[in-house]
Amino acid sequence: MTALDLSSPVAVVGTGTMGQGIAQVALVAGHPVRLYDAVPGRAREAADAIGARLDRLVAKERLTAADRDAARARLLPAGELSDLADCALVVEAVLERLDVKQELFGALEKIVSDDCLLATNTSSLSVTAIGGALRVPGRFVGLHFFNPAPLLPLVEVVSGFATDADCAARAQETARAWGKSPVACADTPGFIVNRIARPFYAEAFAVYEARGADPATVDAVLRESGGFRMGAFELTDLIGQDVNESVTHSVWQSFFHDVRFTPSLAQRRLVESGRLGRKSGRGWYDHRDGAERPAPHTAGPEPAPAYVVADGGLGPASDLLPLIREAGIEVREGSADGDGRLVLPGGGHLVLADGRTAVERRDTVQFDLALDYRGANRIALSAGPDTPARTVGEATGLFQALGKRVSVIGDVPGMIVARTVARIIDLAHDAVAHAVATEEDIDTAMRLGVNYPLGPFEWSRRLGRDWAHALLRQLHERDPSGRHAPSLALYRHARATEKRESTP
């Protein structure tokens, strides 16, 4: 299936931020573009705003003056819906209300030809429900752009229950011809990104609600250890707490109150108080002029231990051993079949977070998962209330000797990065098992849509066959609410891999 010909007019209905962005993308790609808005005068204002952005692209030498002039000539505000009759594609970006969208597409279907593609940019409503009442529902598809549409490459191409495969393929190739990176997905709550990204926020909020760490510390660990571009608290302040909570609530409701998607009570209170983030001046952080950003908890300097004993392999943290040697700290070999720990000179143990609490293990400090232990700037540690200060100090000094800042958090099972990554991996496997999308498209969506340092399946392969399943199983034992129960898909993945590896 080929993309729409560039001579084919494209219409955008709704001229807010997303509508203008989508129109600009189609316009710069070379299509004639019609803009329509139900509010008189809005389409003309939007056309002027797009023209101004094209001027800025010329000033930045990202667009030639000739291409700008040609694009402006192809942009036409429409006074009536009937002006869209000859369009080959109509993209809707109006209010996120099912009845409004259904009414709009019912009216459009009476105007455009039967081979005109009809698309919705909805991020939270069912594509199937929006197009369900259409006379020709097979030509209806979701085209979910990410804001700002001219800059972000990802487009989720969503097939509703009645969407024809040829229609979805043409929409996908058209998005690709516009310079985007389209991914195909089924019509499921949250599609790919908003479904699989829920744990990134939920686990951060859960650590905070358990008094494991403050927002600044959680954010610093996610950035500096996990490799995420922003932490969950600062990102939701940027998005808007009301917007982020609304998406979470929509996904939770759409999955019939599945506990894995339960919204955060702390975030609900934030929204109720009017602290919506940057746009209101306060959210998790104070964004008002002159306000100081709180610093993450960072441990004071501690002496480095003279040696450590490596008792068994460290699994995903095996890169620590060469780093310790490079820092001039002796690594002594312990039991080759040990359970994977570093024994410190004082007799205490240092272990990678595995979903258990530190209080369960005598004289033990846990350390969090890192995307790259060599490149990480910060490592989180946790200890139980009875863990000797000597052991915490030796563990802190060890990581400081490796050039890392250290944040000591509460005794939270799975800590911060580890529990977040494990749940993202689990939801990704579950999505593939339910034919939401392919592994490749999910990895692409999460890297391009929310700037994850790795896609969930890239993480899964890097961390090992049973890592996520084992960690979530331990978490579930300690909190049997079902929130952290590993999915059947992840269980099958872990068991199948184990079987393959054990086959002679």
Give the arrangement of secondary structure elements.
Layout: E1 10-13, H1 17-29, E2 33-36, H2 42-59, H3 65-74, E3 75-78, E4 89-92, H4 98-109, E5 117-120, H5 127-131, E6 140-145, E7 154-159, H6 165-177, E8 181-186, H7 193-196, H8 198-209, H9 215-224, H10 232-239, H11 241-254, H12 265-272, E9 307-311, H13 320-326, E10 330-333, E11 341-343, E12 349-352, E13 364-367, E14 378-383, H14 389-401, E15 405-409, H15 417-433, H16 439-450, H17 456-463, H18 467-478, H19 488-502
Parallel strand pairs: 1-2, 1-4, 2-3, 4-5, 5-6, 7-8, 9-10, 12-13, 14-15
Antiparallel strand pairs: 6-7, 9-11, 11-12, 13-14
Helix pairs in contact: 1-2, 8-15, 10-11, 15-17, 15-18, 15-19
State the domain count.
Answer: 3
Give the CA-based shape. Answer: elongated
Task: Report the total helices.
Answer: 19
CATH architecture of the largest domain: Orthogonal Bundle
Oligomer: single chain
Q: Write the CATH fold name of the largest domain.
A: N-(1-d-carboxylethyl)-l-norvaline Dehydrogenase, domain 2
User: Beta fraction of the residues?
Assistant: 5-15%
Please, could you describe this protein's structure?
With 504 residues, the chain is an alpha/beta fold. The chain has 3 domains: 10-187, NAD(P)-binding Rossmann-like Domain (Rossmann fold, 3-Layer(aba) Sandwich), CATH 3.40.50.720; 192-294 and 416-504, N-(1-d-carboxylethyl)-l-norvaline Dehydrogenase, domain 2 (Orthogonal Bundle); 307-409, Transcription Regulator spoIIAA (2-Layer Sandwich). The protein contains 19 helices and 15 strands. It has helices at 17-29, 42-59, 65-74, 98-109, 127-131, 165-177, 193-196, 198-209, 215-224, 232-239, 241-254, 265-272, 320-326, 389-401, 417-433, 439-450, 456-463, 467-478, 488-502, and strands at 10-13, 33-36, 75-78, 89-92, 117-120, 140-145, 154-159, 181-186, 307-311, 330-333, 341-343, 349-352, 364-367, 378-383, 405-409. Strands 3-2-1-4-5-6-7-8 form an 8-stranded mixed β-sheet. Strands 10-9-11-12-13-14-15 form a 7-stranded mixed β-sheet, with helices on both faces. Helix 14 links the parallel strand 14 and strand 15 (405-409). The mean pLDDT is 95.
